[in-house]
UniProtKB/TrEMBL annotation:
The keyword Transit peptide does not apply. Residues 1-31 are annotated as: Disordered. It comes from Notodromas monacha. InterPro entries: MFS_trans_sf. The chain crosses the membrane at residues 77-97, 109-133, 139-161, 233-255, 302-321, 377-394, 400-422, 434-455, 461-484. Keywords: Membrane, Transmembrane, Transmembrane helix. It comes from the Eukaryota. SUPFAM superfamilies: MFS general substrate transporter. Gene3D superfamilies: MFS general substrate transporter like domains. This is Sodium-dependent glucose transporter 1. The lineage of its organism: Eukaryota, Metazoa, Ecdysozoa, Arthropoda, Crustacea.
Length: 489
């Protein structure tokens, strides 16, 4: 009995010692875990236990921050674009009066080549400027050279083919549209890096632990230098292309200089002086060498300048309507009574520009056999029909689709056809072309801005503006036609 009791007590003591040993080990483990928890990790980790509603709230806040950043980026883009357009207007007023004089007196190939090279260099330098005012200056230079290229290019084309310039003028403006269509597609891979909205939290690892046990972990890091290098690539591509084009013009100029053959531009320049003298003689003298009254040449010159500025106003209305509708038709389709979904509105916008570009391609062949006056009135008829359809059914999907497509068809060839029609009455010099481009650039800024101010009040203001601008274009065109007829008589 005594031996059994002693063995039982020894077993209890051994069991207690084992339990104490296990307890002590647990305390040591707890101390070890707490010590490990206090040690700093290599990368901070933030863990949140959130319900699904709380996670949705966080996502909404992140979306708000992202949308604010997007709005700011759009504001900066619009601001820089406005600077470019303002410089475009200023350069045409200044350069059109000075540099265009050099264009009218020869050396056009050399000047055009230099302008292309300098324009390409200024475009490539733009993304390297981190100072705001330095960036504005480079953008101003870019607009300067762009304005010279626009004014000089149209005049050089008219000088090269003269009376047969109609299809080539249509082809020139078709490639304007084609370039505007292809450039975003080429530059998009470089301008749209794959950055998620969670990457607003830089250099942190954030884990969201949901009630259902799902863990969402984001490791965000954005290499700013890499993004900046990618953005510079499209600018470099544009520079290389423009420099190559400029070198081609210099090569043509060198060939003409070495061969001693006068270029078509110089032939027209030398002939323009004789034409101007003949025009002055027609204005100042009658049959038998008798002097006309001084009133006749003054009236002729006044009518000439009236037609120039009236055509500038014509292009002001036309280009303004063209750009305004192209920029705002998406917003109109979503917010108006048509209530299209955003993907459908995007397709509608593509339909407008698609019919616009396709019609410019077709106009190249139509211009061979159809006079500019006939093409102008056909375009006016199509635009008026489109405006009537939009006025009656813009708040229905079918009416909006048909009206937008017809508007793109009608507006496609008005600009090049208008220049060709005016060239058939008055020789278009670089100074005259610069006045036309001033009106175009001013309309490109003014009419879309006016539309964007009025549309929040009522989306139909866009349609009303299209109808008003269409009527103004027709009225101005009739006025110019009457003035040119009177000047000729």
């Amino acid at each position: 009995m005594m031996s059994n009791a002693g063995s039982a007590s020894r077993d209890k003591v051994a069991q207690q010692e084992e339990e104490e040993a296990e307890g002590g080990g647990g305390d040591e483990n707890l101390m070890e875990e707490s010590t490990m928890a206090m040690l700093p990790s290599e990368k901070p980790t933030v863990t949140f236990r959130m319900s699904e509603d709380q996670q949705m709230s966080v996502e909404d806040q992140q979306s708000t921050v992202t949308s604010s950043a997007t709005r700011w980026e759009r504001f900066k883009f619009g601001y820089y674009t406005a600077i470019l357009y303002l410089s475009f207007i200023g350069l045409d007023a200044e350069v059109g009066g000075k540099v265009a004089i050099i264009f009218d007196h020869g050396h056009r190939l050399e000047i055009y080549g230099a302008v292309n090279i300098l324009g390409g260099i200024s475009i490539c330098v733009a993304p390297l400027m981190f100072n705001f005012w330095g960036f504005c200056f480079v953008i101003f230079l870019s607009g300067l050279f762009t304005g010279v290229m626009d004014a000089g290019g149209n005049v050089m084309l008219l000088s090269l083919w003269e009376g047969g310039s109609a299809p080539y003028m249509q082809a020139l403006h078709f490639f304007f549209g084609l370039g505007a269509f292809l450039t975003p597609l080429i530059s998009e891979p470089f301008l749209s890096p794959d950055v998620n909205r969670e990457q607003l939290l830089h250099n942190e690892t954030v884990s969201f632990l949901l009630d259902n046990g799902t863990v969402s972990k984001v490791d965000a890091h954005v290499d700013r230098d890499e993004v900046a290098a990618m953005i510079r690539i499209p600018y470099l591509m544009v520079m290389v292309w423009m420099v190559l084009v400029g070198l081609c013009f210099w090569h043509l100029a060198l060939v003409h200089r070495c061969s001693g053959v006068m270029s078509p531009f110089e032939r027209r320049t030398s002939g323009s002086a004789a034409a101007a003298a003949a025009a002055a003689e027609d204005d100042g003298e009658g049959e038998g060498g008798q002097q006309k009254t001084r009133q006749a040449p003054k009236v002729a010159r006044a009518l000439r300048w009236f037609t120039i500025f009236a055509m500038s106003m014509f292009f002001f209305f036309y280009v303004g309507m063209e750009v305004a509708y192209g920029q705002l038709v998406f917003t109109f389709a979503v917010t108006s009574g048509a209530s299209l979904k955003k993907p459908e509105a995007a397709f509608l916008n593509s339909a407008y520009w698609g019919t616009y570009t396709a019609t410019r391609l077709i106009s190249i062949f139509v211009a061979v056999c159809v006079p500019p006056m006939v093409m102008m009135w056909v375009d006016f008829g199509v635009v008026t029909l489109a405006a009537a359809i939009l006025l009656a059914g813009a708040e229905t999907p079918a009416g909006l689709w048909v009206g937008s497509a017809l508007l793109g068809i009608g507006m496609a060839s008005i600009f090049p056809t208008g220049i060709m029609w005016y060239e058939s009455h008055v020789m278009v010099s670089s100074k005259i072309a610069s006045v036309f481009l001033i009106g175009s650039a001013a309309g490109e800024m003014t009419v879309p801005y006016l539309s964007s101010v009025l549309m929040p009040l009522n989306p139909m203001y866009l349609v009303y503006l299209v109808c008003t601008v269409d009527a103004c274009c027709i009225i101005v065109f009739v006025m110019v036609t009457v003035a040119l007829t009177r000047r000729r008589n």
